[in-house]
Design a protein that fits this description.
alpha/beta, 2 domains, 3-stranded antiparallel beta sheet, 13 helices, 39% helix
Length: 423
């Protein structure tokens, strides 16, 4: 017996992301005509254990970065197998896709193909039920708006700048609402732009919308941010704090952390920890993500023991939103929070499982975008549905970043007095 919530069709097309590279968009249509679509992001700084983002490898199209294979896997393999399934059976559908792929890292069908289907099915079901996506994903208790980590200075793989560290972020922790947090962030971002202009430094932006100036050192980035916070009329630390994402794997070579861009020499794991400890004492830093390389498990554990009582130590490349690595991370106490990226693992269900492990361990979790983004605002609803209270979705410019922020502003308005801001 057919149901009007059964999947009628699943179709994917190749589109372009915010960097002009191909990705895919998937549209799911149900028997009653309701539909849902989702576009898949792509990362530049990726962990070696992430689920596979399937690319064509045909140098004649997009320099080998085409995704026609992933599109075909949706249209010719995944889609036909899911026709007739109840769209609300998210966990069953996601499990079936994993079984259909049959690999540990989704290298057969591609995590990008699978995630597009998984997210589009969730959105189609929410649309059928005439529910906001965050309410469908999180239930009646979904009302927490996240504190944003706003990328204001770019380095590493995200920009051609003199900074070794990939992201320097501002965190409007003292705001009373998400709406106020956006004002805090925007005013500080504009103050930083004026400071850079006054010093004759570039105000061009990197992949995620942060400025990418030629600074003298990584420390100068923190100093500029503190000055921008003060110029905007806020108090560093209490109103607006700093978060870092060094993405240390990107400058770890031959057993050392090579700070070549800033000409600060090579450092051991212990020396990097000492550097962070000094910075935490000097600057209002409350979170450090990927401060060490993805295979430096011992270093992560030492760092967490040393400064984890004062700052949030976030694992990204070392954990890759993978329940298996998160379990090991909890057992070895390598950090106290995880970055959560849907496309690192490949399905909505597995991402929720990763979050559940963080909750059980008492860890924080930060829902995150990728450097190659689309206008899809799925993660805005997802972070509210999951109630974690923290999001990374880029700077205060570039429409693919603002789409997430603007959706969160809408959600806060929808929730009204029921909305809660913060961790």
């Amino acid at each position: 017996m057919s149901s009007n919530t059964q999947i009628q069709s699943i179709r994917a097309i190749e589109i372009l992301d915010s960097r002009g590279f191909p990705t895919l968009r998937v549209t799911v249509r149900l028997q009653d005509g309701t539909s849902g679509a989702a576009s898949v992001p792509s990362g530049a700084s990726t962990g070696e254990n992430e689920a596979v983002e399937l690319r064509d490898g045909d140098a004649r199209r997009y320099g080998g970065k085409g995704v026609l294979k992933a599109v075909a896997n949706v249209n010719e393999i995944i889609g036909p197998r899911l026709i007739g399934f109840e769209a609300s059976a998210q966990a069953r559908i996601d499990r079936m896709m994993c079984d259909l792929d049959g690999t540990a890292n989704k290298s057969k069908l591609g995590a990008n193909a699978m995630l597009g289907v998984s997210q589009a099915i969730a959105r189609a079901t929410a649309n059928h039920r005439r529910m906001p996506l965050y309410a469908y994903l999180g239930g009646a208790g979904a009302r927490r708006l996240p504190v944003p980590m706003m990328n204001v200075l770019n380095g590493g793989k995200h920009a051609d700048s003199s900074l070794d560290f990939q992201e320097f972020m501002i965190v409007p922790r003292g705001a009373s609402s998400f709406t106020e947090a956006m004002r805090y962030g925007s005013e500080t971002f504009q103050a930083l732009k004026k400071l850079l202009h006054e010093r004759g430094l570039s105000t061009a932006v990197g992949d995620e919308g942060g400025f990418a100036p030629a600074l003298k050192s990584n420390e100068e980035a923190c100093e500029l941010i503190v000055k921008a916070i003060e110029r905007a009329g806020y108090k560093p630390g209490s109103d607006i704090a700093i978060a870092l994402d060094p993405a240390a794997s990107s400058f770890f070579e031959q057993g050392q952390y090579q700070l070549t861009r800033s000409r600060q020499g090579n450092k051991t794991s212990a020396e990097m920890i000492e550097l962070y400890q000094t910075w935490v004492e000097r600057y209002p830093i409350i979170s450090i993500e990927d401060g060490l390389a993805e295979n430096d498990w011992e270093g992560f554990s030492t760092m967490t023991a040393r400064i984890g009582d004062r700052v949030q130590i976030v694992g990204d490349d070392i954990l890759v939103t993978n329940p298996r690595f998160i379990r090991r991370g909890v057992a070895e106490r390598i950090c106290n929070a995880a970055l959560i990226k849907l496309n690192q693992i490949g399905t909505v269900t597995e991402t929720i499982e990763a979050i559940e492990l963080c909750r059980k361990a008492g860890w924080g979790y930060v829902v995150s975008h990728r450097s190659g983004e689309t206008e899809d605002s799925f993660i805005a609803d997802f972070v509210v549905g999951m109630g974690g209270g923290q999001i990374k979705t880029g700077s205060l410019c570039r429409s693919e970043r603002m789409a997430k922020y603007n959706r969160l502003l809408e959600i806060e308005q929808e929730l009204g007095e029921a909305a809660v801001y913060g961790v």
